Amino acid sequence: VPLQASGGGLVQAGGSLRLSCAASGRTFSTNYMGWFRQAPGKEREFVGRIRWSDGSTDYANSVKGRFTISRDSAKNTVYLQMDSLQPEDTAVYYCAARTFGTTMYTDWGQGTLVTVSS
């Protein structure tokens, strides 16, 4: 499923951004949609995920309570609402899809850069 992430930009510490991830193809085989990020010089890390069927979510401890993932099934779009952003949240953010029967995220968006200034 082709994915298109958008919404990144520059924000001051304490500010908010909302990222979007639109799936342009069929999503009936999607079990989870995940958000990941990769900061400069660091490995990619898991941010959170949402189960497509019921909207249940899981988050990394580093973002729990500040980030919220939601979905709009009619638009085949997943959102990452990021509040209380900190400079350490600066990274390229990626969305990805995981289908039923797998443990791997196999479809990835191109990434959107989030820069948080202090």
Show the helix and strand layout.
Blueprint: E1 3-6, E2 9-12, E3 17-23, E4 30-38, E5 45-51, E6 57-59, E7 67-72, E8 77-82, E9 91-99, E10 107-108, E11 112-117
Parallel strand pairs: 2-11
Antiparallel strand pairs: 1-3, 3-8, 4-5, 4-9, 5-6, 7-8, 9-10, 9-11
Protein structure class: mainly beta
SS elements, strand count: 11
Helix content: under 10%
Radius of gyration: 13 Å
Strand content: over 45%
Q: How would a crystallographer describe the biggest sheet?
A: 7 strands, mixed
Q: What is the ordering of alpha helices and beta strands? A: EEEEEEEEEEE
Overall mean confidence score, pLDDT: 94
Query: What's the tally of helices?
Result: 0
- Low-pLDDT segments: none
3D shape:
globular
State the end-to-end CA separation: 36 Å
Structural description of this entry:
The chain is an all-beta fold and 118 residues long. The chain has no helices and eleven strands. The chain has strands spanning 3-6, 9-12, 17-23, 30-38, 45-51, 57-59, 67-72, 77-82, 91-99, 107-108, 112-117. Strands 2, 4, 5, 6, 9, 10 and 11 form a seven-stranded mixed beta sheet that branches. Strands 1-3-8-7 form a four-stranded antiparallel beta sheet, with no helix packed on it. The N and C termini lie far apart (36 Å). The model has no long low-confidence stretch (mean pLDDT 94).
Short description:
This protein is mostly beta strands.
Main traits of this protein?
118 residues; mainly beta; 7-stranded mixed sheet; 4-stranded antiparallel sheet; 53% strand
